[in-house]
Specification:
The chain has one domain (3-81): RNA-binding S4 domain (Structural Genomics Hypothetical 15.5 Kd Protein In mrcA-pckA Intergenic Region, Chain A), CATH 3.10.290. 27% of the residues lie in helices and 26% in strands. It has 3 helices and 4 strands; from the N terminus they run ααβββαβ. Helix 1 (3-9) packs across helix 2.
C-alpha cells in the first residue's frame, strides 16, 4: 500500500494530500528514512511523525483493508514512542 494512502487510511491525516505533504516535507518517515509518498509500506515497518509537539513512532501491525473506522484504525498500529 502506498505510504500516503496508508497514513490517510490509518486516520493519521485527514486527507491523502495532507499525508503526501507531510511525507515530502520530512515530517512523516518510514523506518526512519525520508521516502516518496508512492513508496510501498508493509506490516512490521515503523512510521515516525514529527510535528511541533514532538516525535511519535508507530509500528504498522496490519494494513487496512477497505474503509476502516477510526477505532479499527487504532488497532492496526502500535505506539512505540511518543
Amino acid at each position: 500500500m502506498r505510504f500516503d494512502v496508508l497514513l490517510h487510511e490509518l486516520r493519521l491525516f485527514k486527507s491523502r494530500s495532507q499525508a503526501a505533504a507531510a511525507i515530502q516535507s520530512g515530517q512523516a518517515l518510514l523506518d526512519g528514512a525520508e521516502v516518496k509518498p508512492s513508496r510501498e509500506a508493509r506490516a512490521g515497518q515503523r512510521v515516525t511523525l514529527i510535528d511541533h509537539s514532538g516525535r511519535r513512532t508507530l509500528e504498522i501491525v496490519e494494513l487496512p483493508h477497505g474503509n476502516v473506522s477510526k477505532e479499527k484504525a487504532r488497532e492496526l498500529v502500535r505506539e512505540i514512542e511518543g
